[in-house]
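Appendix B, Record 12. Input sequence as logged:
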Amino acid sequence: MEKSNNKRSVNTSLKIAFIPLAVGINLGIGAIVQVLKLPVFLDSVGTIITALLLGWKAGATVGVLGFAVSSITIFPPAIYFSLTQVCIAIYVFLAGNVGGFRSFSRTIFSGLGLAVLAAIVSAPVIYYLFGGITGNGISVLTLFLEAKGLSKASAVIISGIIAEFLDKVTQCLIAVYILQRIPKTLIQQFKNKSLVSNNFIRE
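Logged structural output:
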């Protein structure tokens, strides 16, 4: 019983310590993207890492908190995409449980699936709340497609799909790269099915 209580205490301490760090990862990379107006987001790396380490609830917490702070300090529309962060956390958690990040090819495939999900969830917000323009780098691509004769709806969907494919695959690869380089003695403390399924740790 005492061993079980100690393990629970360690896990709780790790969550308390790791969640602010993961929020910082989202904010830091996301801020760079906003300043450079890149046609990607790169604001969910911390969410992905947390979902694999601590589960979807912790991942969703990181995503929503990060977007709340980002909405105040960096990118005002961010808060409206909180549902996307929750969906990202759930998807990554489920994909992780079946080994979706076990290899380079599996990570790319999982990233593509995540891109489709994120595009579907985000598109209505972009179109109906912001008229297709949110002020980030993706908006430049949307305006370019409109200038080429596409309707606003088509431009929003196509630019979103293009951006999401590049963005989510890249973020999944970055997250896996980081997880593979966390010292084994540390990552063992987060032991769960997802980490074992993706060979980040051994049973």
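The mean pLDDT is 88.
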